């Protein structure tokens, strides 16, 4: 599609902004965060720096960056890079923060301080993972599907046989979307569900 293209460095401010504007279980997180950067620092920007060829953005009719899909074809390698290269300087800063505007902000900062764990599904046939976020005015127009299909092709080309992702249990809209896109629930957690889809 013409309104989807590979992400570029110039897109980064918009990616941070979109990450925040969809941070509250898919809804606008702006009122819940003192720190406007922490969401993008963990859930958007590192993917672009690690593997830009599998990160894509969506433009609206005015050519404004209004959505993205970011991810990696190799979660195990990405997680190692996150822990060793991306997170330490951020952890130095965020470990000083003691005042949170909401549980949502506290939870994101706690996740950033801990970093990605061992994970399971990347070793069980779902090596890729992703995050997709589209601003409200561009939702429901088929853009999510186009971004997803573009991402599937990109990670398949790099050898990924499956993709997994996590969804907040309160984000019921996303559940419907992922099921429509061929994902099934792999595992239930207290915070939501892990979904997976084979790419063969
Ligand atoms: C969830 C999200 C990515 C979906 O993208 P979208 O552009 O709105 O979805 P699309 O219009 O591309 O829908 C693709 C297909 O899924 C279907 N679909 C979308 N939402 C659905 C739902 N809640 N239930 C069932 N089907 C749904 C559409 O009907 C469409 O079906 P079709 O292939 O038959 O036409 C987008 O709404 C979004 O970014 N929301 C806010 C952030 C968010 O929640 N991100 C996910 C965090 S885990």
Q: Would you write up a description of this structure?
A:
With 200 residues, the chain is of the alpha+beta class. The protein has a single domain (4-161), classed as Aminopeptidase, CATH 3.40.630. It has helices spanning 12-21, 38-43, 45-50, 75-94, 103-114, 143-157, 172-180, and strands at residues 4-6, 56-59, 65-72, 128-134, 162-168, 184-188, 192-198. It has a seven-stranded mixed sheet, with helices on both faces. The two termini are 23 Å apart. The mean pLDDT is 97. The structure holds coenzyme A (COA). Coenzyme A (COA) binds at residues 22, 26, 132-134, 139-145, 167, 171, 173-174, 176-177, 180. This is GCN5-related N-acetyltransferase. Keywords: Transferase. Residues 2-200 form the N-acetyltransferase domain. One of its GO terms (biological process) is glycoprotein metabolic process. It holds the Pfam family Acetyltransf_1.
């Amino acid at each position: 599609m013409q309104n989807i293209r590979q992400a570029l460095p110039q897109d980064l401010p918009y990616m941070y902004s979109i990450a925040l504007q969809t941070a509250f279980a898919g809804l606008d997180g702006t009122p819940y965060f003192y720190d406007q950067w922490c969401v993008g620092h963990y859930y958007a920007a590192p993917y672009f720096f690690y593997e830009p060829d599998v990160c894509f953005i969506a433009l609206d009719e005015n050519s404004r960056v209004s959505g993205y899909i970011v991810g990696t074809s190799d979660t195990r390698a990405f997680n190692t890079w996150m822990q060793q290269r991306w997170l330490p300087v951020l952890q130095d800063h965020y470990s000083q923060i003691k005042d949170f505007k909401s549980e949502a902000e506290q939870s994101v900062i706690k996740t950033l301080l801990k970093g990605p764990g061992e994970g399971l599904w990347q070793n069980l046939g779902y090596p890729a993972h992703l995050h997709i976020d589209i601003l409200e005015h561009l939702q429901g127009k088929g853009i999510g599907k186009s971004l997803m299909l573009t991402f599937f092709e990109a990670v398949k080309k790099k050898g990924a046989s499956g993709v997994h992702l996590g969804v907040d249990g309160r984000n019921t809209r996303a559940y419907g979307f992922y099921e429509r896109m061929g994902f099934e629930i792999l595992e239930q957690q207290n915070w939501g569900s892990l979904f997976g889809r084979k790419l063969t």
